[in-house]
Design a protein that fits this description.
By secondary structure, this protein is an alpha+beta fold. Helices cover 56% and strands 13% of the residues. The chain has helices at 2-13, 20-31, 36-52, 57-65, 68-87, 118-132, 157-164; strands at residues 90-94, 97-102, 138-142, 151-156.
């Protein structure tokens, strides 16, 4: 398992994708652990921190220092790009919320209940925290393991702007 994780980390640094079959096999292995929920949460946070490092330090500083009216559109663009690249997800702004949609999350169904869905949820929460200092909540509103057609997570954009201000 450690060798796989190291190989995945190296591939991510080189911006290479891991095959879905390999990722699913690792997710199922993690899902069997008694601490699967915490492992998925930490893995999502880790991926967000690594993805955040791919953004230029200048832009990262600007996102934290600029007024939210300027920073939020820049942050949204980064969230869209990174979610697409690392989660194969799409991010939309819907009213006062951000909506992350993933048609086939690799980790969905990998653990008991929707434990595998904590991975993208934690990714989104941590990425928003890193980009704009958000402490807002992220809610899992649709889930493939509950019979929905895709998984969706909603982050309150209004709460994010207040937290960043």
């Amino acid at each position: 398992v450690y060798t796989q994780i190291k190989r995945y980390t190296d591939a991510m640094r080189r911006r290479h994708r891991i095959s879905p079959e390999e990722t699913l096999a690792l997710a199922r292995l993690v899902g069997r652990r008694p601490d699967a929920e915490e492992v998925f949460r930490e893995a999502g946070r880790f991926l967000a921190r690594e993805a955040y490092k791919t953004i230029s330090p200048t832009l990262r500083g600007m996102l934290r220092g600029l007024p939210s009216i300027v920073a939020r559109p820049l942050a949204l663009r980064r969230v869209r790009n990174l979610s697409g690249r690392y989660l194969n997800g799409q991010v939309k702004r819907v009213g006062s919320a951000l909506l992350l949609e993933i048609d086939h999350p690799i980790t969905a169904g990998a653990g008991p209940g929707s434990a595998g869905c904590l991975y993208p949820e934690s990714f989104l929460r941590e990425l928003l925290h890193l980009l704009i200092g958000s402490t807002g909540s992220v809610e899992h509103v649709r889930c493939r393991t509950r019979g929905d057609s895709r998984c969706e997570w909603r982050a309150d954009w209004t709460a994010i702007s207040r937290a960043a201000a």
